[in-house]
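Q: Structure tokens for this one, please.
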Amino acid sequence: METALAKTPQKRQVIFLAILLFLREADAEAIRYSMPEEIESGSFVANLAKDLGLSVGELVTRGARIHYKENKQLLQLDVKTGNLLLRDKLDREALCGATEPCVLHFQLLLENPVQFVQVELQLKDINDHSPEFLESEMLLKIPESVQPGTVFPLKIAQDSDIGSNTVQNYTILPNPHFHVLTNNRGDGRKYPELVLDKGLDREEQPELRLTITALDGGAPPRSGTIAVLIEVVDINDNAPEFLQSLYEVQVPETSTLKSLVVAVSARDLDAGTYGRVAYALFQGDEGTQPFEIDEITGEIRLKRILDFEATQYYNVEIVATDGGGLSGKCTVAVQVLDVNDNAPKLTMSTLTSPTPENSPETVVAVFSVSDPDSGDNGKVVSSIQDDLPFLLKSTFKNFYMLVTERPLDRESREEYNITITVTDLGSPRLKTEHTINVLVSDVNDNAPTFSQTSYTLFVRENNSPALHMGTVSATDRDSGSNAQVTYSLLPPQGPHLPLASLVSINADNGHLFALRSLDYEALRAFEFRVGAIDAGSPALSSETLVRVEVVDENDNSPFVLYPLQNGSAPCTELVPRAAEAGYLVTKVVAVDSDSGQNAWLSYQLLKATEPGLFSVWAHNGEVRTARLLSERDAAKHRLIVLVKDNGEPPMSTTVTLHVLLVDGFSQPYLPLPEVARDEAEADSLTVYLVIALASVSSLFLFSVVLFVGVRLCRRNRAASVGRWSVPEGHFPGHLVDVSGTGTLSQSYQYEVCLTGGSGNTEFKFLKPIFPDFLV
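A: Here is the predicted structure, written as tokens:
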């Protein structure tokens, strides 16, 4: 084995930015190996890993493989050891024919990053073919008058080997009449000639049989033989002569069958039978030659279609023989002209699909192109559509890389159908199209997007727990797991809000649920943020604002602020009997903690001691006299006022009013008899309790309590006497009597309230109500 590094004149280097694919002077160096042909399959050629300076592991990780034109598998690479092995026996004659040297060009393709290494394997010829004559016997007719020293042409032997292994010498068994000369042709091939050493005598020996042996230069040499039958004929002293010893002709490979190639012509100065010439193919088997000749006219025509890619040149030897057996020879050199009859071929070496989006420049495919035609017919140009974000880059001889021109966006377009067109420069131009499908793989480059920038949800109060309030929705333009959105509640940023006890969210579909019953009066509205995050890597997220408005329900009854109810001491409104119709007795004040129409209150008189005497204004709760008072009207009145809201269904409450009609005022304390009796009973009970406690505690305490009790009893009796007296006649002099009739000219509203257990009666002056006229 021989290994050599040969530097070529030019260096090309392609650098790819994003993925750092370096083609390390791919065309600058070639690794050359040589080996004999016909080595057994599986034989060791070389260790590529060692020659390239690569470790065995790099061959595996970089996906090393051997590429030969049209993907023929002649060699195989063992990536585990780095050894280059023969896949099959290599026959130099089948691969290269007569071409010398026989060099096979391979490419070592490395991926990740992409690198091409030119590998050349020179096959050395071995002597594996013997010389072979196309015919087993040839006939020579030699006139007996031929003089010694005359040379007769012999057919040459064919040997597929080259160099010293081809035919080197021709021999003949010793005989008294002939010997063989071995001569060199212009192309280096040897041909034999038979030389007459001694004159022939037909009467003595009419025919001779000789054996010609062709020997090659191998070690040991191989040989082939042909029998030569010599017929001695009568005298014919003029041999045919061709007008040209060499005919050169060019024939297009597309020529049809029976097409005329050339017409050769020979003349013989003899007359009669000896002057008639017959033409024949001197060298070659009718089955192998694509030509045929008319033996009379000498016209050479095609009997088989020519193929420039198979054979470019033919040397045809034509012999002309006269009737006396003399012959002449000429050579016809046929050059097959190339016609653009082969479309380019595209061989895909590697294809990367899907291709990730957002990558600046990515290798999508590596392919090679070839055209077996020659000249411009074999030159090719590769192209793709103009409206695609891809471009072709020439990398190594006829290898191309399809790369992305700019980052791809899967959301804009997720699939490309790329048609690679390979066109030769011949006339007419032939082209080949190859379509590849490139899928764009998704990268998580889009955050989830909510359908609304903010959401407003309306929830009625007193809802049931786990109520579905609404749904937030976010979409992600990515695909697969990158588009799977998960929802969550984000921590509140403002004042602390117990969000975890109010709201929950379904992480999969964004459904929002109220965890507990909401109370409009306690919480009318609240806001929180919802986040949406995808499942990509890295994960992207977005958020939106959700505002929950609690809708009021009519769930609260009106609450009376005045007059006080619910266990407080009842208040009695004093109304002078002289009051006119429309006199303001009092005003019922109530509130409703609901809102809207649920808080609109209306008032109505539900029940009265004397219907028609008092009325209640529906909108403001004012209690007024409905008519003039008279002496026949009862002194005490009990009114029940209904306070009702405007909700659905309406809620209501009642308030009880006590009204006392009075004629005048004699002292500031005017308690009611019922209230006095209640107070007396309460005082007596208190005395008894104090006495019982004092008797149990100690005698000293008993004496003190007894003393206090006696004093209290006396005080109560004194108060009871004045409590029930209502003066008659005029008010004391310190009260102003305006009209002189013993009554006040102005109407006053008084409030008499008894508080249990106080022992005192309070008389409170309220604001005067002035008439509409001036006194």
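A few notes: Helices lie at 48-52, 56-61, 92-96, 499-502, 673-697, 699-723. Residues 673-697 form the longest helix (25 residues).
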